[in-house]
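Chain A, query sequence.
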Amino acid sequence: MPATILVVDDEKNIVQLARLYLNNEGFHVEAAHDGKQALEKAKAVRPDLIVLDIMMPEMDGLTVCKELRKTSNVPVIILTARGDDIDRIIGLEIGADDYMSKPFNPRELVARVKAVLRRSQGERDVPEVIEAGGLRIDAASREATLDGQSLTLRAKEFDLLTAFAQHKGNVLDREKLLRLVWGTDYYGDSRTIDVHVAWLREKLGESSVKIRTVWGVGYKLVVESDAGES
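Chain A, predicted structure.
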């Protein structure tokens, strides 16, 4: 059964162009032209991935993404105006998986859709439960707790914390983290790792679970109670 892609954009020519190229690659495409319709379609169709424009009438794409993340981890690629870093950063912060600047090459859109789908499907290979000190990660339910308290994590925060926990005590450079969490076909800036690490550190707070910086190399997750750690 082909994967279903929901393309959301108030510019109908953009939707038609995306539909043409995605259909040619074997995807089934659904369309919505404003934010309210996007949420209704997402609930009714349950797409495998959503391509979501930010600037739309009724409800903008950032609000749509925020609403989606309350109930769903469906992969989202946001479309932003070229050079609009603020929208891109906010989009990633609220749970988007990737972004593209408009105008875009439709072949690149297809490549990104395939890459994000591969990454989301690859999450099935993660061990069901991972523990590190007071941190417990349940990959199946995508839930994480710290010292018995639930952690509220964005989609990529969860994936990044899982990667750190799987490689506890080992230094991971930015390139490896990008491969593990964003996939080999990720086109974005490696500095997104630093941003996500900062968010995770804030949520780990004063617990014994720490993400340490190894200067000039990368990051590693440690538990302060472990022998040899301080």
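Residues 77 and 152 are 21 Å apart (CA to CA). The first strand starts at residue 4 and ends at 8.
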